[in-house]
Every structure is written in structure tokens, then in C-alpha cells.
């Protein structure tokens, strides 16, 4: 077997989780291989608001999103579908950066020192305490550890026979960049019938518009344009934004089958990091920070396991335990908040309560976010 096909860790998927994991382990001298199916840069369906909690950790990896023109965000606006709104300060705040720019920036740092293959992983075999990973185009590589950072839902979930993949999920999401009026420091979340739409600025003064909607509601319309006009514009805040905004993308990007079901953090010895381990409801605006933090949790566990000669079983148990300690509560509260937001009556009542007691909003937000990562 040629030596150059052997790695310490193979990372499948080069979104924020996989890229961060690669940077962390590579900085500690590990021989890593990253395999990503899409070329960089490319647009991803995402709200593109990242919580500041990850900034200190990113700095330790030499990553500064403000070099790319990220916008500092410290205000949050919430509106009901009828347009009743409230605006509050964010407890920790965040920044706005496109995935197009941010993922590509991390990727460029990795290709300087490590091997990256742009190809789709087809199968992951675990035999005699060793993984063999193969891609569609026939590349293969060996490693004692594999990180599954391949996102919400995909071919490898079927391959690994993960239970959640058998259930259909009722959500789709659409995103595009616009030129339009929005303060640089504001992230807005506007409700509409069957979903919600996030607006926030990213680099180059573009406004990222990203919304999630129940597939059943969307199906009744001919296309994205008519859906937006008939449904989104019913919220006066969205009507006002779209009336003066112009789309920069040639066409919006869309994804479907977004799964919020429970997943396991280790599946057939593959360490799941990022959305492949669990996805928080996007209205919490914390999925990317969680993906980055999960990469840190795995990397720290892996490096300790190596130093202290843990068994594979001990590493798997410790990773699962630390992942759940960090994220289980956030996922539970995120699910609860989403249920309230999508119930019109509950949303109206909650907004009235929050308007009279706006200090409750940062408290709820804090429960779906973490503390700054040392
Ligand atoms: C509508 C919506 C809005 C959101 N808004 C926000 C927000 O504002 N703030 C926030 O913090 N979070 C938000 N999130 C969540 C956030 O997008 C995710 O949590 C984050 O992208 C997770 O990163 P990841 O690296 O785990 O997955 P991804 O970024 O999805 O990366 C997975 C990668 O794996 C690759 N891949 C998949 N299969 C294979 C394969 N077989 N072989 C090789 N590569 C493969 C994919 O091409 C992809 O690049 C939102 C999510 C949605 C759905």
C-alpha cells in the first residue's frame, strides 16, 4: 500500500465543521486529508450570521473574518407575520460573512499545507481497526480515524444506514444576496405564513436573504417569485425590504429535506462533527458556531486520546459525552422556540409579552448560544 495514501485522520466534507477540524489538527502536526464534493468558492443556503462566541477560538487558528469584510452585528429585530416588531441588543453579538467567502478563505489556508481532494465520497469501510474511504472518481485513502463532516443529509447517511434518513422532513430553504436597505449591525427575523426569513448584511455591503418554509405551503405556488409575492410580502417589513431591493444572484439557491431529527455523534466508528451530528433550528442563528465548536471538541478529544493512549471506545464515549454536554440543551430550546414561532397565536402573544419585557429576548437567545470559546 503506498505510504502517501495513509493519513492520521480523513475528514469527509469541507464545510465549516470539516475545514475547522482540518485546520486544528493540521496545526498540531497531524497528517490529514480533506475530501469535499464541491469546488470552492460556492454559495450555500445559510443565514450567514455567526455568533461571536467562536472568535477567540478562530483567532487561535489564525482566522480573522473581518479581514474579509465581515460586518459586526449587535442588534436583533423580530417581527410577526403582521409586521409587529421589536428590536433588542444581542447579548454576545455576531458577524455577517458569506459562506462563499468564509469557506473559501479556510480552504485556501488548508491547501497551503494539506491534501484536499475535490470529489464525492462514495463509501467508508471499517475493517481491522482501519478505515478505507473511496470517492466517486476512484480515489481512495486509509486512516485509523474518519470525521464525518458532510452536513445535514446526504448519500453517506444512506450508506451508513442512519435511522433519521428514512424519515421525510417537511422543510425547504431558499437564499440569495441583494442590494438593499438594512443597517450593517442588524440581523432581522421576519415571520410569514409557514416559515421565517432572516436578513443580515455580509461583506461587500450585500444583504443575505434566507428563508425556511414548510414544503407543503411552498408547493402551492408556481415558483419562488410568486411564493415571495403572495406570502413573504404579507409581512410589511419584508414587503418594504423587497420593494427597493434588487437581487445580485442570477437565481436564488435552494435546498430541501432539512432534517432536525436526533442523530448519533458516532456512527459505525465515524465521528460526526457539525450538522451530521445534529442541526439546531436556523432561527437560533447558532448552527455555524456549533459546527466550529464541535470541530474543536473532536480535535481536543482526539489529541488527548493520542497523548494518553485512550482506546477507541474511550474516545468515542468521551466525544459523545462532551458533544451532548455542549449542545443538547441548545437543541431542545431551539426546537421549543421554533414551535412557538410557527404557531400564529403563540407568536402574537409572545411578541406582546416580549414587547413589554424586551429584556427576556437576550435571555432566550443566550439559552440557544454558548459562551465565548477560550
Ligand atoms: C436555512 C438555513 C439557515 C441557516 N442560517 C444560519 C445562520 O444564520 N447562522 C448559523 O450559525 N447557522 C445557520 N444555519 C446552520 C448552518 O448552515 C449549519 O449549521 C452549518 O453550515 C454546518 O456546517 P457543516 O460543516 O456541518 O455542514 P455544511 O456547511 O453543510 O458542510 C458539509 C459539506 O460536506 C460536503 N459533502 C456532503 N456529502 C459529501 C460527500 N459524500 N463527499 C464529500 N463531501 C461531501 C458538502 O458539499 C458540504 O460542503 C442555517 C441552516 C439553514 C438550513
Structure explained in plain terms:
The chain is α/β, with parallel strands linked by helices and 374 residues long. It has a domain at 3-64 and 97-167 and 259-367: FAD/NAD(P)-binding domain. It has 11 helices and 18 strands. The chain has helices spanning 16-27, 55-60, 99-113, 155-159, 215-219, 224-230, 236-244, 287-308, 312-341, 344-356, 360-367, and strands at residues 9-12, 32-36, 49-51, 71-79, 85-96, 115-118, 121-127, 130-135, 140-143, 145-148, 171-179, 186-192, 195-201, 207-214, 246-247, 253-256, 266-267, 270-272. The longest helix is centred in the last third of the chain and has 30 residues, at 312-341. The chain is globular and about 60 Å long. The protein starts with 8 loop residues before the first strand and ends in a 7-residue tail after the last helix. 43% of the residues are buried.
Question: Can you summarize this structure?
Answer:
This protein has helices at 16-27, 55-60, 99-113, 155-159, 215-219, 224-230, 236-244, 287-308, 312-341, 344-356, 360-367, and strands at residues 9-12, 32-36, 49-51, 71-79, 85-96, 115-118, 121-127, 130-135, 140-143, 145-148, 171-179, 186-192, 195-201, 207-214, 246-247, 253-256, 266-267, 270-272. The chain has 374 residues and is an alpha/beta fold.
- Tell me the CATH superfamily of the domain at 3-64 and 97-167 and 259-367: FAD/NAD(P)-binding domain
How many strands?
18
Can you give the helix content as a percent range? 25-40%
Give average pLDDT, whole number: 94
Q: Name every ligand kind in the structure.
A: flavin-adenine dinucleotide
Which term fits the overall shape? globular
Beginning-to-end CA distance, first to last residue: 41 Å
CATH architecture field of the domain at 3-64 and 97-167 and 259-367: 3-Layer(bba) Sandwich
The fold-level CATH name of the domain at 3-64 and 97-167 and 259-367 is FAD/NAD(P)-binding domain
**At the first level of CATH, what is the class of the domain at 3-64 and 97-167 and 259-367?**
Alpha Beta
Largest sheet: 9 strands, mixed
Count of alpha and pi helical runs = 11
* Structural category: alpha/beta
* H/E element sequence: EHEEHEEHEEEEEHEEEEHHHEEEEHHHH
Low-confidence stretches: none
Strand coverage percent: 25-35%
Q: Radius of gyration from the CA trace? A: 21 Å
Amino acid at each position: 500500500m503506498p505510504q502517501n495514501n495513509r493519513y492520521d485522520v480523513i475528514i469527509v466534507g469541507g464545510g465549516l465543521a470539516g475545514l475547522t477540524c482540518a485546520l486544528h489538527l493540521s496545526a498540531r502536526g497531524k497528517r490529514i486529508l480533506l475530501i469535499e464534493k464541491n469546488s470552492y468558492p460556492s454559495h450555500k443556503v445559510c443565514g450567514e450570521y455567526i455568533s461571536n462566541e467562536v472568535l477567540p477560538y478562530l483567532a487561535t487558528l489564525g482566522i480573522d473574518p473581518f479581514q474579509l469584510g465581515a460586518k459586526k452585528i449587535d442588534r436583533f429585530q423580530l417581527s410577526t407575520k403582521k409586521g409587529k416588531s421589536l428590536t433588542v441588543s444581542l447579548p454576545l453579538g455576531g458577524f455577517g460573512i458569506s459562506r462563499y467567502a468564509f469557506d473559501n478563505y479556510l480552504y485556501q489556508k488548508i491547501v497551503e499545507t494539506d491534501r484536499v481532494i475535490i470529489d464525492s465520497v462514495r463509501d467508508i469501510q471499517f475493517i481491522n481497526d482501519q478505515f478505507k474511504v473511496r470517492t466517486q472518481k476512484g480515489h481512495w485513502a486509509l486512516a485509523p480515524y474518519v470525521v464525518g463532516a458532510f452536513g445535514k443529509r446526504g448519500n453517506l447517511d444512506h450508506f451508513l444506514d442512519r435511522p433519521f434518513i428514512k424519515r421525510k422532513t417537511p422543510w425547504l430553504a431558499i437564499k440569495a444576496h441583494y442590494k438593499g436597505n438594512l443597517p450593517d449591525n442588524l440581523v432581522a427575523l421576519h415571520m410569514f405564513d409557514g416559515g421565517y426569513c432572516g436578513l443580515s448584511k455580509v461583506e461587500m455591503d450585500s444583504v443575505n436573504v434566507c428563508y425556511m418554509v414548510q414544503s407543503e405551503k411552498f408547493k402551492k405556488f408556481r415558483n419562488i417569485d410568486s411564493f415571495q409575492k403572495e406570502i413573504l410580502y404579507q409581512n410589511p417589513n419584508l414587503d418594504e425590504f423587497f420593494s427597493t431591493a434588487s437581487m445580485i444572484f442570477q437565481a436564488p439557491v435552494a435546498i430541501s429535506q432539512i432534517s432536525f431529527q436526533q442523530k448519533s455523534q458516532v456512527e459505525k466508528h465515524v465521528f460526526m462533527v457539525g450538522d451530521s451530528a445534529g442541526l439546531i433550528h436556523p432561527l437560533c442563528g447558532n448552527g455555524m458556531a456549533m459546527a466550529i465548536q464541535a470541530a474543536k471538541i473532536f480535535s481536543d478529544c482526539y489529541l488527548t486520546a493520542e497523548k494518553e493512549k485512550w482506546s477507541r471506545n474511550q474516545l468515542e464515549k468521551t466525544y459523545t459525552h462532551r458533544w451532548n454536554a455542549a449542545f443538547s440543551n441548545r437543541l431542545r430550546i431551539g426546537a421549543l422556540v421554533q414551535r412557538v414561532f410557527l404557531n400564529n397565536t403563540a407568536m402574537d402573544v409572545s411578541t406582546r409579552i416580549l414587547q413589554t419585557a424586551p429584556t427576556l429576548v437576550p435571555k432566550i437567545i443566550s439559552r440557544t448560544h454558548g459562551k465565548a470559546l477560550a
